[in-house]
Amino acid sequence: MGRNSKNRTRKSTIPIRNSKTIEAKCPEELRPARNGLHILHEIFGMGSRSSRSSKLVDVVLIAIDFENFSHYDNGYALKSSSQLGLAILDTKEINEVSPDKLISTYNFVWGSPSYYRRKAYKFSFGETIKIRYSEIADRIQSLIPRARNIVFVGHSVCQEIRALRILGFQFPVLLSAILDTAGIGKDILGHWMSLSQLLLRLECSFDNRKLHCAGNDAAFTLKALLLLAARGFSKQEQDLDGDCNMTDVLQQISNYPKPQSRTWTWDQEKIDEIRAARKQKREDEEICLNAFALIEPS
Q1: How much is the pTM?
Q2: What is the DSSP secondary structure assignment for residue 182, as one 8-state letter?
């Protein structure tokens, strides 16, 4: 009994994303910043420009989310069906591009065909891309602009950092910071929250049924980051150099992209298979009913 209890306890700790133990396993240089809100305000130029670090000027924000992380952690990734989501915002384009075109979202899936179909249907911000496990790191690298300051973002982001390390991902030389929306949310709102709880507190519209899809989670993590920056920037801190409008800008950007509605589509082979199964079920039921009708009551 003691052994089984110990095993259950050990397994139950795997998915806990707020664990300090998980963060402790990240190298110091890859741990999320403790002053995340201050970094956010520097990134968006909210407040005094005199103390703004050159590493936080014109950064590219990249939100990352992995699903089925425990498979990576236990070495089963080659056999597992899993997902990677990315949401990217180039802050240099905030004053140049329409808010509805600023955030680009990607959903990558590898594994079984049925898993791919389910997650592709669930993804709300475009088409899901099917890849092989061996391609993951290269796909991420291809979407990171060179010679730009990069900031990685995640919700309890140490899970994602560990997954990237297991994949052999080469972190950008110009990685300026790693931001954790769970930690920043705690600093502003008082306690740790799941992504869905944080979105509710920030009044960000979402469909809870569509979370735990990597691309969706990455997009909503980035939206939450923008809303946290706006929420954490008090009116007393706003100066008169035009930055007082940035809170409104961030809230406007967080409204996009809009989730897409989807209808499930089957190929003809799948339709024929379903129809055949239904026909067989009806025939089996009819045989059973006929058999019972022939049995005379005792």
Answers
A1: 0.77
A2: H
pLDDT in tens, 51-88: 778 999 999 999 999 998 665 555 555 557 899 999 99
For residue 215, give the amino acid letter. Answer: G
Burial level of 19, CB count in 10 A (0-12/13-18/19+)? middle
Nearest residue to 175 (alpha-carbon basis) of 148, 212, 150: 150
Largest Cα–Cα separation, the chain: 96
Please, are residues 30 and 178 in contact by the beta-carbon 8 Å criterion? yes
B/e letters for 219-236, b = 16+ CB within 10 Å, e = fewer, are: bbbbbbbbbbbbbbbeee
Question: pLDDT tens across 208-261, in order?
Answer: 888 999 999 999 999 999 999 999 886 446 544 445 588 999 999 999 988 876
Tell me which of 122-126, 195-199, 271-275 is least confident. Answer: 271-275
CA nearest to 39, candidates 195, 162, 184:
184
Q: What share of the chain is helix, strand, coil (3-state, %, to 5)?
A: 50, 15, 35
